[in-house]
Amino acid sequence: MKKVFQMMTMVLFLTLSLSVPAFAYQYMTAAEVKQNMAEKTPMTLVDIQVEDEFNQHHIIGAQATYAYPVKSEADRSKMTPVITPLLSNNDLAVVVCPRGGGGAKRAYDLLVKSGVAEDRVYILKKGQAEWPYPELLDAAH
Fold first, then answer.
1. What contacts 56, CB < 8 A, 6 or more positions away?
2. In whole angstroms, what is the distance from residue 45 CA to residue 76 CA?
3. Percent above pLDDT 70 for the chain
4. How many angstroms separate the CA atoms of 15 and 49, rounded?
5. Is the pLDDT score of 9 beyond 90?
6. Distance between CA atoms of residues 20 and 134, nearest Å
């Protein structure tokens, strides 16, 4: 009986673990993003900040999605304009979140679930709030 219980527990655990994304998030530091920009490495900065925050400060060349907090279907649909090109190119995809936390992880999960190769997806470590290079910031037009 004990073995049956252990087996059922194992099956339940495996079933639950398969339904939850188990991505090991990759992070890119601000210095690495800056270096990639300087070297013109193909990279899409997927900025999920809300519109007001994006207008206050964003990294030059960042693609605005206004998808934060990436919880609802409406939020997720705002990511489509950046996902579509990422599916047909080999750019690195760096998610820029206000602080690099839960919203960034949800955006990362969405990119990977949508078919962007996980080895190309990163989160900007510490997010926009800790971006140390004011010379690489731009205001929305």
1. 139
2. 16
3. 82
4. 34
5. no
6. 38
Is the Cα torsion angle 123, 129, 131, 132 positive or negative in sign?
A: negative
Which tokens hold the place of 64?
Answer: 């605005």
Residues ≥6 apart with Cβ < 8 Å to 10: none
For residue 39, how far is the Cα from the chain centroid?
A: 22
CB atoms closer than 10 angstroms to residue 57 = 16
Cα 118 to its chain centre, rounded Å, is 10
Which is it for strands 27-28 and 121-124: parallel, antiparallel or unpaired?
parallel
- CA distance to 39, 90, 98, 127, 139, per residue, from 102 (Å): 29, 25, 10, 11, 25
Query: Distance between CA 53 and CA 26 in Å, rounded?
Result: 24
- Residue-level pLDDT at 37: 98
User: What is the rounded end-to-end Cα distance, in angstroms, of the chain?
Assistant: 68
**Over the stretch 27-85, which tens digit does the pLDDT of each residue have?**
999 999 999 999 999 999 999 999 999 999 999 999 999 999 999 999 999 999 999 99
Where do runs of H (alpha helix) occur along the chain? 2-19, 30-38, 51-56, 73-77, 80-87, 102-113
